[in-house]
Amino acid sequence: TYVLARTSRRNIRRIKKLAAPRVWNVFSLQFAFVILLMVGLGKLLREAAELGWLGGPTGVGGIYVGIGLGLVVAASCYFAKPKKPLPTRTDERPIAKTAPIGILLVNLGTPDGPDVSSVRRYLREFLGDERVIEVNRAVWAFVLHVIILPFRSPKSAAMYRRIWNDDYGSPLLHFSQNTQKSLQKKLGNHFHVALGMRYGAPSLTTALSELRREGCQTIKLLPLFPQYSNTTVGTVQARVSELVGKERNQPTLQFLPSYSDHSGYIQALADLAARAASNKAIDLRIFSFHGMPEVYLRNGDPYLEECTRTAWCLADALGLERDEWEMVFQSRFGDEPWLQPYLDEFTVGIAQEKPTVQVIMPGFATDCLETLEEVGMSLRDEFLANGGRELIVTPALNDNPLWIEALHSFVLEHTPEISHVENS
């Protein structure tokens, strides 16, 4: 189709250049020669079909159909009304446009609902990401669709129903939207903040389309993952790069660095933890981060170092000695070794020795299944059942004003031209 249509357009241009075209000028001598060659090719194909070559009559018939369709498309070039040339002349200098800087705020994602179908769809996308599950894709496809999704989806859906809010649905989506609105108000008209989820809705495609409509030529990627990992920030960066790379008018894309020890973020965590403790006598504070298979760390993921940096900064901000806090990891999946200590085993194991424990989850910027159900419900019940007196679960940062201020400061620190304007 491409070759024949291109030949037809060249033939049309040749005819238009003729001073007095005649009927016999429709085809050039070269084109007539090509037609004769095609007739000869048709005869050869017919002979091949009779001899059983090229798939016999069926195979050669398919070739005939393909060539015929190509000829139909090429013939349409003679009847299609040509488009007018795009105007290129202008008598006025173009006015420079002031476009807002795009902030792409990204969170992990959430199912559309707490039903099995929605949760299954979400888990399929999440666990199908090769940066999240680093195993042979063919093997994992079988395990995911035959073993994991049929059994895990109903269990996860039941847990989601425990945290689903009657008024606003998904806590993660609700607080992420609040964060986006608050940050937009704080940053002002120099910026446009769009929210996208790595998995689920609103998608990254939707968020990028929003920024494109606003005319943003510079986009700064701000994932709501304070600690860098290939499984979170890495997959977001890879996906956004892929989507932006498909655009004709690609914006300037900037990946903001990790903010695991940013002073505003640490202060927001410390303030939230102090208010949650309410001056109670705490036997131990536990800093819980999302877990990760040890093999990922051995292959070069910097996640453990990022978590350690946050934990020490937070301990300093709270004025804690080393024996007054511990760093643990939660939400492990599968049977392979993950980062230890494990939150559930460690917390239950100290229930009688340290009956009043505060759990702070610095890696979760927004309350979700892991903070609300896994820790706030299941772990608390297990801790009390094993002799603990009180498990104080510190909420996530959500849309806390100090957190919004920290994000605001972080963005301005990496936008010096706007920072200069704001300060002046």
Could you characterize what this model shows?
The protein is α/β, with parallel strands linked by helices. Helices cover 52% and strands 12% of the residues. The chain has helices at residues 2-16, 29-50, 56-76, 116-127, 137-163, 171-187, 204-213, 230-245, 263-277, 294-298, 303-318, 343-349, 369-385, 401-413, 416-423; strands at 101-109, 191-199, 218-223, 252-255, 284-290, 325-330, 356-360, 390-393. Helix 1 runs parallel beside helix 3 (56-76), helix 9 crosses helix 11 (303-318) and helix 9 (263-277) packs antiparallel against helix 14 (401-413). The chain is elongated. The two termini are 61 Å apart. The relative contact order is 0.10.
Shape: elongated
- DSSP helix fraction: 40-55%
| Oligomer state of the chains in this structure | single chain
Describe the largest sheet: 4 strands, parallel
Quick structural overview:
This protein is α/β, with parallel strands linked by helices and 424 residues long. The protein has helices at 2-16, 29-50, 56-76, 116-127, 137-163, 171-187, 204-213, 230-245, 263-277, 294-298, 303-318, 343-349, 369-385, 401-413, 416-423; strands spanning 101-109, 191-199, 218-223, 252-255, 284-290, 325-330, 356-360, 390-393.
